[in-house]
Structure formats: structure tokens, C-alpha cells
Amino acid sequence: MASALKIAPGDSVVTLLDDARAGETLTLAEARLTLTQDVARGHKVAVAALAPGEAVIKYGYPIGHATAPIRPGEHVHSHNLATALDATLDYHYAPAPPATLERPAEASFLGYRRADGRVATRNEIWVLPTVGCVARTAERIAARAAALVGDAVDGVHAFTHPHGCSQLGQDLGGTRAILAALAAHPNAGGVLIVGLGCEENQVAALVEAIPPAARGRVRALTAQASADEVEDGVAIVAALAEAARATREPCALGELVLGVKCGGSDGLSGLTANPLVGRISDRVVAADGSVVFTEIPEIFGAEQSLMDRASDARVFDAITGLVNGFKRYFLDHGETVSENPSPGNVAGGITTLEEKSLGAVQKAGRGPISDVIGYGAAARARGLTLLEAPGNDAVSSTALAAAGATVILFTTGRGTPLGFPVPTVKIASNSGLAERKPGWIDFDAGAVLARGFDVTADALLARIVAIASGEPTAAERNGEREIAIWKRGVTL
Asked: What is the pTM of this model?
């Protein structure tokens, strides 16, 4: 017999937890439904009759409107459900009573405490090229230096990109801001900046953009001014690694900075993995830690629920400005604000952007939003911070790392091998993915369906503590360490 989950009492659809055939019966608390057609796991089935134009309710909120008559037991998807999103909106400040977050039992991880008080989960040397022209040079330096420095540090990594020249204004500023923020990251015990010499993103300007407190562990090399830039780079990295030797020590859970992200979502992401990560976010916030979330186009349709959690009117205004500004960015480029979900999302059961967003925002838990920051900026407040960045996995995860995240929790229903500068914990929304791709996945959130949220959250927190203490993620074992920088403007 097929099984399904109804999320909120007033929902007009349920989500299937297994593949089901036409004629099978769903037994729900309020009714028995006979399926009128085959429906795949993660997809929706109507529990009430819906007329054309009527709002379809999931998570207790509208996820669009019916485009045709829908009978109970019928599959609800792109053929009979459409988005209701359109353009920018006027929002009103109506703060909800703050959620009470229970302080978790004392937990700690083994981290590296830096001189400025921040705590790192890795002690690595990072090689950052100013421009794509020396990307391969940076990789050669990192590869040779890694073999030379041994276990003095946890690793030597080059983070390459194609930008840094032929850029203007906001684009060049964004590239510089991301690289400067990465150079100041606590997980980097030392940083080598490799420049070419003639690029727009000049080494001196990039170093000037790095916070002064971090510049002492940053060195720079200009390839055009070196007789052998690789040999010189390796020597610099070797010296940085020797100076960066450090020892792990117990650190409280509240000294983690979590980045939360979803990618390749399916119809179960909003039922298992995302709310599970939301519970971890609540535990870290309750422990006086920091959680950063982003993917602004993937909160369209769910933004009011976040705005109601703004800690004050200033934060509310910043959220509304960020959301409407991002919508205007779409409209100015001739695109609709609802041009989402992706083909993989749709195949997994997500129909509209409202549905995707209502599932995605659950990663941020229930706590108040304490701050809003721009692209390339570092998180500056404890609690929840909303970061300006698009939904693209690589761009937004890079921005989370640049904001100071020392661990990224990345939920996925379809799977992805990508990893980023900091430990990236891949959390499967369904057990099938976890079983099929053990080389990609670090944790199976499908266990929520059998074990419940509390037990599964305890298990996930234990996994996060182990990874923050040095256990490698699947992406780290696979050598998946990438960055991507948001390209918004013209190219010269």
C-alpha cells in the first residue's frame, strides 16, 4: 500500500513517500484516497477537489493555482498547477512572536582557535589567483607544495576562477570582495595570492581589500615579475605552512559558523532534509552560534514568512530591499521571477517556485533573523544572517564560505559531487540516493521518515561535530573543492 505525508492540516495535497500505481489506496487520517494514475515518489496527490483558479495549499501556504479541474486522488503537477508569482511586491512589517529555541545539551568539537577569537574547522593553505590567466599556475603551485609540506597543515588548495580581468564596476568589485573574504577565512592558516601583473584585479588592490587583521598571514606573488613563478610560489607556501602549524582544541558548538544550502532538490527535500537542517540551525543559534543562509530567488513565494521573523524594522527593511532588488534584477533582464524550478526539481516532484521556496526556507529553522549582508560580505552577527547571492549551487556556496561559514550543510534530493572551500556535508533527502551514491553523500535524512526528527537530528549533529573536528567529507575525499564567482555585468 502506498504511503503519503500531509504536512499541514489545511493542505489540499499530500506528498507520496513511495512510487504508487493507479488504483492503489492511500489511507490518511481524514480519508481514504484511490489514485487515478501512476504517481512517482515525491510527487503530489490531491486530497480535495480543486477548481481552475483555486489556490493549491502545501506547507499551509499557497504553492500556485489549479489550471484545470482536479479530483481527489489525482496527480498534481505541471499539467494542472501553475505559479502565482509576479513582479515585486509591497510588504508590511508585522513581526511574529519570536520562537523559543531550547538550548541544546552541551556539545563541542575540536577546532583551531585563531588569534582573533574565531574558530576554524580546517587549517589549510589556500592559493588564490587574482585572474583566470594564472589559474593553472595556482594549481601547479598548490600541487607541488602539498607534496612538500606534508602534515604541517591539513592541506594546500588552489581555488581558481575565470574572472579578474575584462570586468567593470560591480562585477570587478564582486570578484575582489569574494577573494578578499576568502583570504580572511579562519580555515586558511595562510594564503598565497597569485597575480599576473596586468589584470584589472591588481594584487595591491586585492590585498588592500583584505581586513587588516588577516593580512599578516597573506603573501602575494606577481607572475610577470618572477623568473620562475611556480618555484617562487612553492617556496612561499612552504614557509606559510610552517608558520601555520596549529593544534586542535575543544570548542563550543556556538563557535561554529554554519552555511546552509540546498541543491538538486526533490519533492522530499522540504519534508526531510531541509527541516532536519532547520533543527540543526536552531540548535546552533540557541547555543549562540551563527547560521548563514542565502539563495534569494529560492525564497520568492515564502519571503513573508522570513520577513515576519526579522529581529527589528531595520532587518525587515533590508530583507524587503534584498528580495525586491533581486526580483528587479530578473525583470530588468527580461526574465520572469518564477523561472524556477529546474528540470531535475520538476522530475523530483517540485512544480512551482512557491513550493520549492517553502521547502527551502526550512533550512533556516525558526529563530529570528538578526542581520542581512551583501554579496562578498562577512557575517558580523550571531544568530541567523541572510546573505545576498543567487540560487546557483557553486556561486551561493562560495558566497557562504566567503561570509565565514566553517561548515556548509548541503541538502540534495538528486545528488551532486560538488564541494567548496570549507567542509561541505551532503545530506540526502531520501534513503535511495544515500544508498545509490555513498561516494557523494555524508548523511541520510531519509531516516526521518522511520526514526523521527529528534533522533535523526542528534545523529546529524554528531556527524557535523566529527567533520568539524577533522573527519573528511565525501567531497573532500574526492578532491572536490571549487569556487564560483557571480558574473552580473558586461565583459570588456
From this structure: 0.96
